[in-house]
Amino acid sequence: MRATNRLSAKGAVSLGPGKHADGAGLWLVKDEGGRGKWVLRVTIYGKRREMGLGAFPAVSLAEARKNADVARSIVRAGLDPIKVRENAKREAARNLHILNDIALDCFETRKAELKGDGVAGRWFSPLEIHVLPKLGKMPVAEIDQTDIRDCLKPIWHEKAETARKAMNRLSLCLKHAAALGLQVDLQATEKARALLGKPRHKPENIPALPWQYVPEFYSSLNEGTVTHLALRLLILTGVRSNPLRFIHENQIDGDVWTVPAEAMKGRRDATADFRVPLVQETLAIIEEARAHSRDGFMFPSVRKGVISDATMARLMERRGMTERPHGFRSSLRDWLAETTDAPHDVAETMLGHVVGGTVERAYRRTDFLEQRRALLARWTQHVTGQKGAVVKMVGGQA
């Protein structure tokens, strides 16, 4: 009898239950139902092992012999074909992770660094809107610079800032994939930038109402609604809309409003809460807002939660204004620069900006609360139509 290739394709089909040798360690093991499996017996490191080569008849005799030849060659090289196959499967599985899954996992790991744990979705939105619909189902290991270029090309010049954010988020996703052990091209985003070229569009600042015209607008917010009161407090305090929308009763202590660190953009240190001084006018607004509060939140929406980011903006749109609520921070900053001698550190701190390097901040233990209170009192006088005299800061005092 032949030592190898003992079986034939037709004969294998008609064989009964049991073990049938094809030779050189290749066996067909069949059951009562006529189905079976291919098994290769090999000796590895002095021990006999059986390696499955697939189900019969799905795997043909010719294919089983081909797979057996590959396994034998691995044995001759002094390696374990079973381990080699398992390693190859693990490598293939790692590299089949699609971008959509990697992006979500990356987002989860970064939530602790994001304002409000990224609930507002601003970190993930550029990916969700502009990248994942096109690249989300691709294995992350296969994404290259041409894929990224083709994905972002439609918005590269028209929506330059959005495209920049999407590219940066995608770069972080690739780094996250690399950290997971996936084979990715970490330079793909930089190569894509080279292919796309420099964006023609220049990002524009949010339109701001000149500080001279703020009193007229402020006086028109006289209906006592949630939106009017929110805009009034926004203008007088200079805070961003997010902490203002989520202002809660437990954040107010006398004439100080303490904004939690996680609500402050760029303030991730748990000790970096931001204190906002409250003057007579702002205290009156807060008292009036309490009549609208729900679950302790002073500016609730009509249905649930708090008013949206767009609520105040839409009021200004309906009045035909191009300016937006965030621009009132610029109005305040310009007023400080043009009508006061407030030191740079005090003026920047009024807007909640982090001033100075790590070492400098470690030695500076003040947040200029009383200096800022005096300046905000003057700003309030201006905004409410009273006399807003020029403020002179002498030796850090107003």
From TrEMBL:
Gene Ontology biological process terms, A to Z: DNA integration; DNA recombination
Family: Belongs to the 'phage' integrase family.
UniProt keywords, alphabetically: DNA integration, DNA recombination, DNA-binding
One GO MF term: DNA binding
InterPro entries in UniProt: DNA_brk_join_enz, Integrase-like_cat_sf, Integrase_catalytic, Integrase_DNA-bd_sf, Integrase_DNA_bind_dom, Integrase_recombinase_N, Phage_int_M, Phage_Integrase
SUPFAM superfamilies per the UniProt record, alphabetical: DNA breaking-rejoining enzymes
Name this protein carries in UniProt: DUF4102 domain-containing protein
Annotated Tyr recombinase domain residues: 204-376
Upper lineage: Bacteria, Pseudomonadati, Pseudomonadota, Alphaproteobacteria, Rhodobacterales
Superkingdom of source: Bacteria
Organism: Paracoccus litorisediminis
